[in-house]
Design a protein that fits this description.
Layout (H helix, E strand, L loop, with lengths): L13 H13 L6 H4 L3 H8 L3 H29 L1 H19 L5 H19 L1 H11 L4 H30 L1 H23 L17 H6 L14 E3 L2 H5 L2 H30 L4 H26 L5 H17 L6 H30 L4 H16 L1 H13 L3 H20 L7 E3 L5 E3 H7 L1
Antiparallel strand pairs: 1-2, 2-3
Length: 443
C-alpha cells in the first residue's frame, strides 16, 4: 500500500464560512419566538390584539418556511449560500421596515409572517448549516457550535436593547433596528466570504486530503460517518422512503413544537408571575449566556452523535427545564429552569445542525435538510398558537408546560432509535455516480 503524505494548509477557508455564518446568526434574534414575546404587550395595547393572534404570526412564518424550504433546498445544493443569502437579507430588511407601517392584523401577518419567512429561509440556519456541513466532516460539531454562538450573542445583545428601545422609542423603532442589522451583518459578509463546497476551490472538508488518502496513512475514518468510495447522493423519493428520515423529522418536529411554544410565551409567562422587566431581561440574557458558554462543549460532544446517549440527553435536559418552569413562581426554580433549559436547547441545536449530514452525507444535504425542515416546521408551526390558545382558554400556561415536558421525552425516544440509512448511490472522486450494488460487486 502506498503511503500518501497528509498535507494541510496553514489556514482552512472553511473557517471563513463559519465566520460568515456566525455573523448571519447575529441577526437571527429578530426572528426568534422569544423576541416576539416582548412585543405582545405593546402590540396588544396599541391595536387590541390578543396574545394568541399575535403569536399566530410565528405559526404563519413557520408554515411559510415549511412550504418554501423544499424549493430552496435543491437551490442550496446547486448554487450555494453565496447566491441565496444576500437575496434573503434584502427581503428580510425590507419586510421589517414594512412591519413599522402596519395598522391591521392581516398586514402584520403579511410582513412579519410571510415575507420575513421567505427571506429568512434564504439566509437562515437551513442555508448556513448546509454550507458548514459541506465544509466540515470531522469537525462539523464544533464548526456548527461556533456559528450558533452568533445566535446566542444576538440574544445577549438584543434582549436588553429591545426592552430599552420599546420602552423609550416604541416598537416601531425596534423593527427599523432589526432591518439595519440584517443588512450590515448578512448582506455584505455573505457576498464576500460564502462559497458552496471546498471541492469548488480545489480543497477537501476539514482541510484534509481525501478520506481514502487518510486511510492509507493508517488513520481511521471518524465513527458515525460513512466509509464509501464517495459521497452519498439522494433523490426526493429515496429520502421519503427511508425510515430514518421520518424518525429524525418527527423527533426534531416534536421538539420544535415544544420549544417554539415556550420561547414565544416565556416573556409573557414570567411577567404573569409578577416579575418586573429588569428580571425578565436578566432571565433572557442569562439563558443566552449559559447557552453560549456550553455551546463549544456541546459541539465537541456532538461529534460523537453516533452514540445514542449523545443524541438523546439534550432532549431530556430541555424537557426537565420545561418542567422546572412550572415551579418558576419561586426565584430559585426560575433561575434553575433557565439554566437547565438553556443547556438542553444548546445541545439540541447542535445535534439538529449536524445529524442530517451525518446520516445522509453532503452532496444532497440541501434537499434532505429542506424536506426535514418541511416536516419539523410543520410541527413547530402549531407550538406558538397552541401554547397561547391554552392561555386564552384557561388563563394559565401551566397545562401547556406539562404537555411540553412529555413532547421532549417523545422526541428523545424517536431520535434515539434512528439509525443511519444505507444510501442507494454515491458520487466518486471523478464525479461519476455509482450504485450500492456496483460497489458490492467491486468488493
Amino acid at each position: 500500500m502506498t503511503i500518501v503524505k497528509r498535507l494541510k494548509p496553514r489556514y482552512f477557508y472553511g473557517w471563513n464560512i463559519v465566520g460568515a455564518s456566525f455573523l448571519a446568526h447575529l441577526s437571527y434574534a429578530e426572528h426568534h419566538s422569544s423576541m416576539l414575546g416582548f412585543f405582545f404587550k405593546p402590540l396588544g395595547s396599541e391595536f387590541g390584539w390578543s396574545r394568541s393572534s399575535i403569536a399566530a404570526v410565528q405559526t404563519i412564518a413557520r408554515v411559510t418556511e415549511a412550504l418554501i424550504a423544499p424549493v430552496i433546498g435543491p437551490l442550496i445544493d446547486k448554487y450555494g449560500a453565496r447566491v441565496l443569502m444576500p437575496v434573503g437579507a434584502v427581503i428580510v430588511g425590507l419586510s421589517m421596515l414594512g412591519v413599522t407601517q402596519v395598522s391591521t392584523l392581516w398586514q402584520f401577518y403579511l410582513f412579519r409572517g410571510i415575507v420575513v419567512a421567505i427571506g429568512f429561509t434564504l439566509m437562515g440556519a437551513l442555508v448556513t448549516d448546509v454550507a458548514i456541513n459541506n465544509w466540515f466532516v470531522r469537525r462539523r460539531g464544533r464548526a456548527i457550535a461556533f456559528a450558533r454562538l452568533g445566535s446566542n450573542l444576538s440574544n445577549i445583545i438584543f434582549v436588553p436593547v429591545t426592552v430599552f428601545v420599546i420602552a423609550s422609542s416604541g416598537w416601531h423603532t425596534m423593527f427599523v433596528v432589526f432591518a439595519v442589522v440584517t443588512w450590515l451583518v448578512v448582506l455584505v459578509p455573505s457576498v464576500i466570504f460564502m462559497r458552496r463546497r471546498p471541492e469548488d476551490m480545489g480543497l477537501h472538508p476539514d482541510g484534509d486530503t481525501p478520506v481514502d488518502d487518510r486511510m492509507q496513512n493508517g488513520e481511521e475514518k471518524p465513527s458515525g460517518m460513512y466509509t464509501t468510495p464517495g459521497e452519498p447522493v439522494w433523490n426526493r423519493r429515496e429520502v421519503l422512503t427511508t425510515g430514518s428520515f421520518w424518525l429524525l423529522a418527527a423527533s426534531l418536529g416534536i421538539s420544535s413544537m415544544a420549544f417554539q411554544g415556550i420561547n414565544i410565551s416565556l416573556a409573557a409567562y414570567i411577567q404573569d408571575l409578577h416579575y418586573d422587566n429588569t428580571t425578565l431581561a436578566a432571565v433572557m440574557t442569562v439563558r443566552a449566556v449559559i447557552m453560549a458558554a456550553v455551546l463549544p462543549f456541546m459541539g465537541l460532544v456532538a461529534e460523537h452523535a453516533h452514540r445514542v446517549s449523545v443524541r438523546v440527553i439534550p432532549f431530556i435536559i430541555q424537557g426537565l427545564g420545561a418542567f422546572l418552569f412550572l415551579l418558576a413562581g419561586q426565584p430559585v426554580f426560575l433561575w434553575l429552569a433557565v439554566a437547565v433549559y438553556g443547556i438542553g436547547m444548546s445541545g439540541i441545536g447542535v445535534i439538529q445542525g449536524i445529524i442530517w449530514a451525518n446520516y445522509f452525507g453532503r452532496f444532497s444535504l440541501g434537499l434532505v435538510r429542506s424536506m426535514g425542515f418541511f416536516v419539523a416546521f410543520g410541527f413547530g408551526a402549531a407550538g406558538p398558537v397552541a401554547m397561547n390558545a391554552v392561555f386564552d382558554i384557561t388563563g394559565s400556561y401551566r397545562p401547556a408546560f406539562i404537555v411540553i415536558t412529555g413532547l421532549f421525552a417523545a422526541a428523545a425516544f424517536l431520535i434515539g432509535v434512528a439509525r443511519p440509512p444505507r444510501p442507494h448511490r454515491y458520487t466518486t472522486a471523478d464525479g461519476m455516480t455509482v450504485s450500492s450494488a456496483e460497489i458490492l460487486l467491486e468488493e
